[in-house]
Design goal:
The protein contains twelve helices and 15 strands. The chain is of the alpha/beta class.
Length: about 400
């Protein structure tokens, strides 16, 4: 059968019909343990009752208004996130890429409003991924995503992730508007930025009048055990933060959090969106936050993450021929492999476990935040069985 979908994807041949909790079921009824969650999107798993109810209730009232009119759910969610974070304002979008674009615009407009129109530079880090829009691929530092789309746009440049001397040099550039970093890189190999490094970036940005943007599209929304990953650390708050994925629990939704200072260049009419912050997304977004910010939820994420860490470290110890290191934090973890993990991902799917991959030969695990210890042990056992099979085949 012909396929009219633009051929930019390479999907698995498996066709899923339904999901419940941390499991998906294909069209033949086979269950799969979902440890990629739509690439860290389905934060509360599949068909979570609270999200289904919130969406259904809202769908029977209003679907869309546009931001020509007040949307009470949007005002409520903005205030809730600002109360829980560094932010003074929130702006809602439809995706992570749109959030990144908005952060870049806000940062450049900030300097323009202060009479520094030439400060357009955006500094990022090798291995970073900031979305697929033209601005996103230029902010990101992976050449493969820019190939064929023209030269890198003016102002965008990158340095090595963790290179202190390069950072100290680049931060002084007179045209620099902002530094953008993923506190935990997703596509770049599930690499966590050390606390001291984020604190240093914050300090250098302050000293040089540069804004700091965090891309927490993948590592935010409770995934590492805090509402946003940078909240593990003191003295490292950003000026702007891009969020998406898990904050909508599977419904398309993104968000920018920004301080009043960083937003001082924004005025009525200089930015907007047709669908961002609409009634459906806001109903689901508030329901997600009800759960994630509820009593004991993040504490349980941290506890189960400990079980996952133990299991992954055990795999590393038992299969040094296959596993180089365990990366990431919380429920955003990676197994850096000695070989390309793509074939392994397919073998694990055959065994009923869904995982992802990332750069630097990394097998990526990002299960729903409702995952249990038993689910984790089951997943680790499946990986263990596959590794054992690979070692047997290698020795035969």
């Amino acid at each position: 059968m012909s396929n009219a979908v633009l051929p930019v994807y390479g999907p698995s041949p498996v066709v899923f019909e339904r999901g419940e909790g941390v499991r998906l079921y294909d069209d033949k009824g086979k269950p799969y343990l979902d440890f990629i969650a739509g690439i860290a999107v389905n934060s509360l798993g599949h068909a979570h009752p609270a999200l289904v109810k919130a969406l259904t209730d809202q769908a029977n009232k209003l679907w869309h208004l546009s931001n020509m009119f007040r949307i009470p759910g949007q005002e409520r969610l903005a205030q809730r996130y600002c109360d829980l974070t560094f932010g003074d304002f929130a702006f809602f979008t439809n995706s992570g890429a749109e959030s990144i674009e908005g952060c870049i615009k806000i940062a450049r407009r900030y300097h323009w409003s202060k009479g520094q129109a030439d400060r357009i530079g955006i500094l990022s880090f090798n291995g970073s991924f900031h979305g697929r829009t033209l601005g996103g691929i230029n902010a990101g530092a992976q050449e493969k995503y820019r190939e064929g789309f023209g030269p890198r746009l003016p102002g965008f440049r990158s340095i090595e992730f963790g290179d202190v001397e390069a950072l100290k040099k680049e931060i002084k550039a007179p045209d620099l508007a902002a530094v953008i970093i993923e506190p935990v890189q997703g596509e770049g190999g599930v690499r966590e930025a050390p606390e001291a490094y984020l604190q240093l970036i914050r300090k250098l940005c302050d000293e040089n009048g540069v804004l700091l943007i965090y891309d927490e599209i993948q590592c935010g929304a409770g995934r590492t055990g805090q509402l946003f990953h940078h909240q593990w650390f003191k003295g490292a708050d950003p000026d702007l933060l891009a969020a998406a994925k898990g904050i909508g629990g599977g419904f398309p939704m993104g968000m920018i959090l920004v301080t009043a200072n960083a937003a001082s260049g924004m005025a009525k009419g200089v930015h907007g969106t047709t669908f961002g912050g609409g009634p459906l997304a806001m109903a689901v977004g508030n329901a997600v936050l009800d759960v994630v910010a509820g009593e004991g939820f993040l504490e349980n994420v941290r506890r189960v993450a400990g079980t996952l860490t133990q299991g992954m470290e055990s795999l590393k110890d038992r299969y040094p021929e296959l596993v180089v290191e365990v990366t990431g934090r919380g429920l955003l973890r990676g197994l850096r492999m000695t070989q390309d993990p793509m074939p392994l991902r397919g073998k694990l799917s055959d065994r009923g476990l869904l995982v992802g991959t990332a750069g630097n030969n990394t097998l990526r695990l990002a299960p729903p935040l409702i995952v249990t210890d038993a689910d984790v042990r089951e997943a680790i056992d499946i990986i263990d069985q596959q590794f054992a099979s690979m070692m047997t085949a290698a020795g035969s």
